[in-house]
Amino acid sequence: MLVLASLVAAAVFLRQDGINKWLDGSAWRRKFFFFGSSLIAGIWTFGIAWPDYKAISDGHADGKNTAILCALAIGLVATVLLQAIGFQLPDRWETKVADALKERDAANADYQLAKNEGFFHWLVGHCFLSVIGIKKTFVHDASKNLPPAQDAQRRLKNYREAAKPERQVVALIQVPYEVYWRLLTDRNPRASLRVAYFARSGPFLVLRHCWNGVDSKCVRQGVKEKKLSRDRFFELTNETRSLAVAAAKTGDIQIVPSAKAAHADLQHSFKYFQPTQANRIESIVAIPLGVSGDNGYHEHVVCIDTDFAGFFDQDQRKQLEFVKSNLEQRLLCELAMASLLNDGT
Q: Is 0.85 topped by the overall pTM?
């Protein structure tokens, strides 16, 4: 019997990996196995030890076999119980560890999101402050050379040169470029970026300024092409054929992660003006600015495009809204100032 028990124990030990895999498959298998094993071990101990115990009680045996068998049975029971504990503890600990890891990952994700948002807000604020710094420098210089108070015309001219809203408008339009150029180069140093500012003139959106970091004429068209492009893509009263017009009509920020996919979609408002643009515009956004006029169209639109596909996506809408809120008020203020100073000439 001792030999048989040893063989059983050896078989269980040798087949432990297979048994463990089978037990890992289901919780009820583990409970059934451990309960059954404990029960069998107990019955086996009682069945084997009882005859020797009776023999000892009757004075017919020295109890040596009983002690050995009892020790073996107790060892088997202990092994089964330890296995049971060993299976139960990992389940509990693995669950707690998994939950802790999930909480850690969620906390790290929240921290990284807050960190990115904080950096983005700082970057936007820093870029807009630099524009204010430009104006401050001109105004400060002009204040040191004021004409006499009696010379109103010279004073007005001096103030106009110091304020120069047109210069500030150009600087403000370049802020989105500076912000997204910084973010773009962190992801793809070789990518290019371009910003274009459109203002409504009658039934059309007209390009007022563009910038790609080095060139303020990065959007080039001949006279004939320019007129054709304007009539086809930038007329507000006709079918929407450009992202800028869609933004002006709806008042919503238009986000295109994949320009090629949008161009292929017949229902989408984005379309390439020329086939060569497919190599330069991979992702684009259009930001409407200003309150809508009597016809319901927004007066100003800023478009930002890049040759890095997927750079703009819907997850950036909140950031784009933040840029819009900062740019819109400053731009409208400078445009109103320009109108006021021009009326004063």
A: no
